[in-house]
Every structure is written in structure tokens, then in C-alpha cells.
């Protein structure tokens, strides 16, 4: 192996180590919720404003992580193949037309988990490493 190849391999290894590692993304509801597991399509319809129906009845109350949180970008990419900015544009059109209200943005996984755990028809997503007994996972995005 040449020194140039070794430098390239080291640079790749350092870059990979600098990237945040996620165990996955968990879509969560309150632990006591009767909501069943959800499909990727069902969650996508909620988070793209195509539906507001909470599984098990009622209107879903959606929670989102802040734009600065890397889990948000991964969530939208894995869920819909769209970037968070593309999803924001979708919501801008829906808001302007008066068709829907966007998910409420909270500051962290802990805040989303607390809001969802309070019950009702709340749904959110968090890094799966943050899941505890206060919430029930209805979908996992690897």
C-alpha cells in the first residue's frame, strides 16, 4: 500500500468517525395509546400533510425536531426520500392555502418524548436510543 493510499484510508476513517451515529429513528406515541403499529406510508402521509388521521381515531398532533437537529434530516430522507427543506416547502404551500398546520417544533428528543408521552393523539419521532417506557414505538426507520 502506498503512502497516498494510507493517507486516503485514514482520511475516510476520520470522516466516518466524525459523522453522528444513530441507532435508528423511532416514531412514537404515548405508552398507553391504543394506536397500532404504523406503516411508513401512514407516517409519511401525516408528516407531509396528506392526512391528519391518528391511528385509532381522532386528529393527530404532530411533533417535529428543530431544523438544526440531524435526526430531522434523516427522518425525512428515510421516510419520504425528501430533504427537510423540501418538506418545509410542502408545508409552506399547505399553510398558505389554509389546508393544514405543520408539526409543532420542539427543541430536543426529550421534549418530543415528553409531549408525546402526555397522551392523546400525539405522535413524534426521536432517535431510537432515547426511547423509554413513557412512549410506544409504532414505526422504526433504520
Automatic annotation (TrEMBL):
It comes from Dyella mobilis. Residues 1-23 form the signal peptide. This is Phosphate ABC transporter substrate-binding protein. Keywords: Signal.
Amino acid at each position: 500500500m502506498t503512502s497516498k493510499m494510507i493517507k486516503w484510508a485514514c482520511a475516510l476513517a476520520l470522516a466516518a468517525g466524525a459523522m453522528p451515529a444513530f441507532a435508528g429513528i423511532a416514531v412514537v406515541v404515548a405508552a398507553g395509546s391504543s394506536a397500532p403499529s404504523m406503516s411508513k406510508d401512514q407516517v409519511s402521509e401525516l408528516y407531509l400533510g396528506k392526512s391528519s388521521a391518528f391511528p385509532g381515531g381522532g386528529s393527530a398532533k404532530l411533533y417535529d425536531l428543530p431544523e438544526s437537529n440531524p435526526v430531522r434530516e434523516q427522518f425525512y430522507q428515510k421516510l419520504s426520500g425528501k430533504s427537510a427543506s423540501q418538506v418545509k416547502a410542502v408545508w409552506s404551500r399547505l399553510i398558505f392555502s389554509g389546508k393544514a398546520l405543520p408539526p409543532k417544533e420542539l427543541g430536543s428528543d426529550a421534549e418530543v418524548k415528553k409531549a408525546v408521552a402526555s397522551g392523546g393523539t400525539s405522535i413524534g419521532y426521536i432517535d431510537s436510543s432515547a426511547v423509554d417506557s413513557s412512549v410506544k414505538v409504532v414505526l422504526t426507520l433504520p
